[in-house]
Design goal:
Length: 234
């Protein structure tokens, strides 16, 4: 049951996506190793996803690790991979409590067999749940589009439509995001959902990801509902 200050969404906001930026800077501001910021960010990720489900959002996508993030220091990458593995270990309990359906977006071939097996298991046992959570890992939108075109070429497609491409993307199972939120102060998409974002609304905030609160989500949703989405029309 929502309190008087909590917003509840309707069909106009069915899918929200987050660029979870600012974990490292959050830690640096506190004179802590950047890896600590990722741990706090991971905890906040779980809280925010659950809250989105509570207020009625049916699909959430998070940008957890990009194809470019492999260029970060090894200890930071190792920390993120360990956090992912630990999170996968808790998913079965989370999906039972919160009804989460997990989908992982990106090229999984680079991960260890153990990690790929965990990902496949989580997707399989959660497939009948209702709250969709897309986790983009080793994800880059340009790579996703190239992957889609290669898949269509292998099918022998000669004339390719927009629908063909959309159906070949990692996100073919869900509608495009209505709203994309980026924390951390930067105003760019950073190779995230470039095809799917054609008519998404955007919200940029200076708040660092570990500091994002449920009150911030309410504020973001209210801002979204204050806009008129015209989709190129009047």
């Amino acid at each position: 049951m929502a309190d008087n200050n909590t917003v509840m969404v309707d069909e106009r906001l069915g899918h929200i996506a987050f660029i979870m930026d600012g974990n490292g800077r959050w830690a640096t501001k506190r004179m802590l190793p950047r890896t600590v910021g990722h741990k706090y960010g991971a905890e906040n990720f779980k809280k925010i996803v659950k809250y989105c489900g509570k207020i009625g959002i049916k699909a959430v996508t998070v940008y957890a690790f990009s194809t470019e993030n492999w260029g970060r220091p090894k200890n930071e990458v190792d920390t993120i991979m360990n956090l992912l593995s630990q999170y996968l270990d808790t998913c079965e309990e989370e999906m039972k409590i919160h009804g989460i359906k997990y989908k992982f977006l990106g090229d999984m071939s680079v991960f260890t067999p153990e990690l790929r097996e965990k990902i496949a298991r989580v997707e399989e046992i959660s497939k009948d749940n209702s709250l969709l959570l897309n986790v983009a890992i080793n994800y880059g939108s340009r790579a996703e589009i190239v992957h889609a075109f290669n898949a269509l070429a292998r099918e022998g497609k000669k004339e390719i439509t927009e629908k063909d491409v959309s159906d070949a993307l990692y996100t073919a199972h869900c509608p495009d995001p209505d709203l994309i939120v980026r924390t951390g102060g930067d105003i760019r998409l950073s190779n995230f959902l470039l095809w799917q974002a054609q008519y998404s609304e955007f919200y940029f905030t200076d708040v660092l990801w570990p500091d994002l609160t449920t009150d911030n989500i309410d504020e973001i949703v209210r801002e979204f509902y204050s806009r008129k989405r015209r989709y190129g029309k009047v």
